[in-house]
Amino acid sequence: MFRAALFCLCCAVSAPAFADAKLMPVDTLPEGLSDKIAAAVAVPGQQLVTDDGAVCTVWLAKETAAKADFKPSLNVKYPFQTGHFLGVLRVDKAAEYTDFRGTEVAAGVYTLRYGQQPVDGNHVGTSELHDFVLAIPAKADVDPAPVKSVEALVKLSTQTTGSNHPAIFSLLPPAAADKAPGVIHDESKEFWILSLAAGIGGGKTVPVRVVVVGVSEG
């Protein structure tokens, strides 16, 4: 379900309660990560902060595998493979923080793995873009090795929502003018987007855009 390189993560609050935000570097990892996950995560993380305090913080993996022969398509913009570990999300906001579908995500620490929206009758008209990240409670995801089946990935992420649907955050196509790290405000959709650079090995990075605040219109 997910792919990344320069990485934009999408998370959401049901109704943005702030007019401005900035990024602050976080030089330590959050508590609650397994030793294996902690060893796979790079610092600093990037924290979205408003006048009311911190909203969320994202740390990317030190390295994420990317398809060597990947070419973006109309629906898929990132070279990652489903189930691969992309990083860690800490929800700092105490209430009203949601995923891209508007499902509440409690304050706490989550791993992030790449996934793609299924091409089936249940998702017609929901999103033209198929790149997403799934959030999994850190206590349930203790090894950065890829989750090999979509079913297992979804089952892990449903522990975040307490429903039969995973917690998803949208990955948007990066733009040449993006600065990483950076924060982008899409006023037309009320999205707050993190622009980051994900390591893919060999000193290379992939630009990523993640919506950390915002809800799908579909």
SSE map:
Layout (H helix, E strand, L loop, with lengths): L11 E2 L8 E5 L8 H5 L5 E6 L2 E8 L24 E7 L5 E2 L9 E9 L14 E7 L12 H12 L5 E6 L9 E5 L4 E11 L2 E10 L5
Antiparallel strand pairs: 1-6, 2-3, 3-4, 4-5, 5-7, 7-8, 8-9, 9-12, 10-11, 11-12
What would you say this structure looks like, in words?
The structure is a single chain. This protein is mainly β. It is built from two helices and twelve strands, in the order E-E-H-E-E-E-E-E-E-H-E-E-E-E. The protein is globular. Mean pLDDT is 88; it is low at 1-7 and 120-126.
Name its key features.
single chain, 218 residues, mainly beta, ten-stranded antiparallel sheet, two-stranded antiparallel ribbon
Average residue pLDDT: 88
Radius of gyration: 15 Å
Distance between the termini: 18 Å
- The neighbouring-strand order within the major sheet is 2-3-4-5-7-8-9-12-11-10
| Residues in helices, as a percent range | under 10%
What characterizes the major β-sheet? Answer: 10 strands, antiparallel
Choose one word for the global shape.
Answer: globular
pLDDT < 50 runs, ≥5 residues:
1-7, 120-126
Task: List how many beta strands DSSP finds.
Answer: 12
What portion of the residues fall into strands of 2 or more residues? 35-45%
Put simply, the count of helices is: 2
Judged by helices, strands and strand pairing, the structural class is mainly beta
Compressed to H and E, one letter per element, the order equals EEHEEEEEEHEEEE
